[in-house]
Amino acid sequence: MEYNFRRVGQEDGVKVIDIFNYYIENSFAAFPEKKLSHDIFQPLLEMAKGYPFYVIEHEANGVIGFGFMGRYHPSEVFNRVAELTYFILPSYTQKRLGTRLFNILTNEAKELGIETLLASITSLNKSSIDFHLSHGFTECGRFSRIGRKNQTDFDVVWMQKFI
């Protein structure tokens, strides 16, 4: 099977939000409790403005995942830091696509002068925590029991990698 990694376009909005909504409804990987409107795509693009935003396309099934970076904080003293976000449909995980996407984002981060990558992950998303650990991230902070989704409390785990 062929996969293509390309920059996101306006035409990807519905599919990107559908993938995100899948994780909202079926996991703790996405923080919201209820599905989001497709209108949220424009603010998502704004969050990633000036940073790389990619989709993963499958040759037969179209967009099956996405990932982007965004500002950690609006102050210019944090210009060397970016936060990562990525989601790949479950039937396409364990195929090294996340690693390929992570490498693309990391290489572009270096070109932008980013020196630190951050990820904010729910403590109930063990696969994401394991993914980040296997790619050189370390846990740098944890906010205990600050999230509640579907009547379940969770921690928010912050992970960090110097690049």
Based on the model shown, name its key terms.
163 residues, alpha+beta, Aminopeptidase, 7-stranded mixed β-sheet, 4 helices, 36% strand
Overview of the structural elements:
- There is one protein chain.
- With 163 residues, this protein is α+β, with helices and mostly antiparallel strands.
- The protein has one domain: 3-Layer(aba) Sandwich (Aminopeptidase).
- It has helices at residues 13-26, 41-47, 97-111, 126-134, and strands at residues 3-7, 53-58, 62-71, 81-88, 116-122, 138-149, 152-162.
- Strand 4, helix 3 (97-111) and strand 5 (116-122) form a beta-alpha-beta unit.
- It is globular and about 40 Å long.
- It starts with a strand and ends with a strand.
Task: Please render the helix and strand layout as text.
Elements: E1 3-7, H1 13-26, H2 41-47, E2 53-58, E3 62-71, E4 81-88, H3 97-111, E5 116-122, H4 126-134, E6 138-149, E7 152-162
Point out poorly predicted stretches.
none
**Biggest sheet: strand arrangement:** 1-2-3-4-5-7-6
Provide the helix percentage.
25-40%
From the 3D coordinates, which CATH architecture would you assign? 3-Layer(aba) Sandwich
- What is the CA-based Rg, rounded? 15 Å
Strand content: 35-45%
Quick description:
The chain is of the alpha+beta class and 163 residues long. The chain has helices at residues 13-26, 41-47, 97-111, 126-134; strands spanning 3-7, 53-58, 62-71, 81-88, 116-122, 138-149, 152-162. The protein has a single domain (3-117), classed as Gcn5-related N-acetyltransferase (GNAT) (Aminopeptidase, 3-Layer(aba) Sandwich).
